[in-house]
Fold this protein.
Amino acid sequence: MNLSQKQKILKAGEIAKTVREYARTIVKKDVPLLEIAEKIEAKIIELGGKPAFPTNLSINEIAAHYTPAYNDETKAEGLIKVDMGVHIDGWIADFTFSLDLENNPENKKLIEASEKALQNAIEKAKQKSSLGEIGKAIQETIESYGASPIINLTGHEMDEYDLHAGLAILNITNKNSEKLPEGLYAIEPFTTKGSGKIHEGKPSGIYQLTNDKNVRNPEARKVLNFIIEEYKTLPFCSRWLVKKLGVKALFSLRQLEENGNLYQYPQLVEISKSKVAQAEDTILVENNEVIVTSGVL
Ligand code: MN
Ligand code: MN
């Protein structure tokens, strides 16, 4: 990681901190998710960044990957996860907070468990603990609240224009004795009182470029070129394309998916339909220092 890359990572993190505070003021019960997502994404741009992926606003048992469609009328409620991304030239800050919009003490406990687990995991990373010990800290913290971590969702390494690069940071005790190598990582404990696992739900309308091979339809080719130019290998959503290119882009998206150019993420749903809370921050690990780029810790 050279100096200019580090500066981009830190700048994305500074924007993230401001966006997080802003988002906390606009996520309220009964506000349309569409309005929330668009305001967050506009704020990121206003501050000089770009959204690294569509704002995820996942409610209750949906753990992740819900972003409003262009015509979505869903309103904020329940236990909501606000998962946001900022990038500067492909260098990402990935960060999440959860809110309880129904004044439910159980929700608040799940949220507190995720936040505390994140805090303890970051503490372990700063102490140069192993990945196994980081996972153990997350699991034990969450279990101390009488809840479970979601075992098949993990934190992850990030690289330039790559949201999910190589290494995974497990949310459970494991035998990995390796320490976090230098690099950029998201740590994200998910907490539930359910069975602690997610499965794939409905299509999310969130896509990622997987292959730039040719597609016959000229309109679809145009959309593909736009995606390559605008988002590169970062996730984007149908809502963004409708905004830029009109509803006809939806037809092209389907063709590009069928042609193998795009992967569409599924929504991720807790299998026992129990509520899920999440907390997430991005850390930059260097030889002599661990910096929480997107947070205050
Ligand atoms: Mn995230
Ligand atoms: Mn993440």
